[in-house]
Design goal:
By secondary structure, the chain is of the alpha+beta class. About 40% of the residues lie in helices and about 20% in strands. The protein has one domain: YhbY-like (Translation Initiation Factor IF3, 2-Layer Sandwich). Strands 1-2-4-3 form a four-stranded mixed sheet, sandwiched between helices.
């Protein structure tokens, strides 16, 4: 799913009120962390993830999450990345056209 600039702007506004639901630390993207991210995306659609590592590792983690979860990266600020993936059965977030 590709988001329009207007939809991304809307989602960025929604992420301000969110708290990180998953934190990635020293061990990186383990299977358990990926399962937790999948679960959060299924339930919330829009999630905020805190990645505690250096810039290169963060960038690799963000790309890996987007690829493995088939999620759209909404934005990244410092150690926090926000992702969106539509739940086809029970949509939670209403996107503008």
């Amino acid at each position: 799913m590709s988001l329009s600039p207007r939809q991304k702007k809307h989602l960025r506004g929604l992420t301000h009120a969110l708290q990180p639901v998953v934190m990635i630390a020293d061990k990186g993207l383990t299977d358990n962390v990926m399962a937790e991210i999948e679960s959060a995306l299924d339930h919330h659609e829009l999630v905020k993830i805190k990645i505690r590592s250096d810039r290169d590792t963060r960038t690799a983690c963000i790309d890996e999450i987007a690829r493995r979860c088939a999620a759209e990266k909404v934005h990244v600020i410092g150690q926090v990345a926000c992702f969106f993936r539509r739940n086809p059965e029970k949509p939670v977030v209403i996107l503008p056209e």
